[in-house]
């Protein structure tokens, strides 16, 4: 799980596809500019940033230097759900830059609230030092990540969907997928972000609308302020809701938010501004207060207060989630094997019953001509009728067996 630093830079693993895109946008580089500098097409760069392909050789080293991941970088501060917080992070920039303003290079750092206090509540017993991955087994590292992120992530998904049961189900689904792909998640620069993205995608799937238990949200809070805030958030479009939660709730910067939502930085900024404005119209001051110079104020404090006040079921233990993930993977493996056996059997049966040589098809039917039609007895002539009458009238002489019978 540790990464070697003795090999050449060209063999070092690149960041995740979303992180590549975030680093490129943080340096204000377009896909065409990167493609021209590396010597490929813009479509190839897009494939690198979506995970369909990965650069190799000299292009890998050039691409790594260009987006800045090969340079020594200081480790970004961990978000609240990774550093032991029981809720979402409430730190972030005080004002949103304009959509066309340049974004800073590299990940943004968390800043405290204006009053100097931290709005996130630490987990019971304190977060403590984060264990190094190299000193833990895969199970221990997974359990440590689960214990630090699952409670806060469950509250985030609840604010995203309004369903406590769906939030618990989505977080468990994200961690099951993470355990099945643990080598990939363990070497990712942001394992908590990897699980968060998987949980958000599952929670926001439109297929949940077909489930009867998820057609309506859970009862809203009794407090009028919290009820108005949650109702306003759930009334936003899904893309706006996710952007607002990631930026103002989790505390991600614009490049990170844009990369996780698979949008450009400009589009993410527009979604954030529109989401803040829509929520501010439905909230009383000071939660919905707007600064004339910077637009609607961030919703860090209201989101943190709402997350802490709502009761969300505790996620199951990490060993239980790991066991369920292994069981689901085993079921899918068996299903794939059974399908393969059925496919092989059907192919073998087809080969056995199929003809082994070419059979010429029968010629189509043709109409036969020149044959006289089949006729019956001819009509009696007058002479035949006269003879028949004479034979019937005369007496027969001779043995009865020789008397002709005339009908």
Automatic annotation (TrEMBL):
All copies of domain HTH cro/C1-type, residue ranges: 21-55
Keywords associated with the record: DNA-binding, Sigma factor, Transcription, Transcription regulation
One GO BP: DNA-templated transcription initiation
SMART domains named among the record's database cross-references: HTH_XRE (SM00530)
Amino acid composition bias (Low complexity), ranges on this chain: 106-124
Keyword hit for rRNA processing: no
Listed SUPFAM superfamilies: lambda repressor-like DNA-binding domains, Sigma2 domain of RNA polymerase sigma factors, Sigma3 and sigma4 domains of RNA polymerase sigma factors
Any one Gene Ontology molecular-function term assigned to this protein's record: sigma factor activity
Keyword Transcription carried by entry: yes
Region Disordered, residue ranges: 1-32, 67-137
Pfam families referenced in this protein's UniProt entry, alphabetically: HTH_3
Similarity comment: family membership: Belongs to the sigma-70 factor family. ECF subfamily.
Protein name: RNA polymerase sigma factor, sigma-70 family
Lineage: Bacteria, Bacillati, Actinomycetota, Actinomycetes, Kitasatosporales
